[in-house]
Amino acid sequence: MSTRPASSDRQATLELQVRSLNADRFLVRVLGDLDLHTASRLADVLQPLLRSSSHSVFVDLSGVTFLDSTGLTCLIAAYRTARHTGAGLVLIAPSERVRHMLALTGTDQVLHSYPTVDAVPDGLPEHL
Length: 128
Prior knowledge:
This protein has 128 residues and is an alpha/beta fold. It is 30% helix and 30% strand. Strands 1-2-3-4-5 form a 5-stranded mixed beta sheet, with helices on both faces.
């Protein structure tokens, strides 16, 4: 996995798109770099959605081009919030870089992923 050089000039590139799929299901599409400079923006979107036990949040990571430990920590914090509140949280189509990082850290054992939104079971298991 390639790393990016640290640069104070580098623009933080992250685009977030939030779409309601129905009254209690939300899709958050993440595009770009999920890193030290951008992870807080994703947290600001995910945390309020996960505060309701009736919500299921699908995080589409197919457009993530770079993931560092701060981005990974953001996803783990979202998982912990979901566990605490009883909300559902799943990853959708993680990019190869994201899958590699999740597997390398063992996070793929707790953050479940599906290839598409349609592949997610209607009744999410409680451990999600």
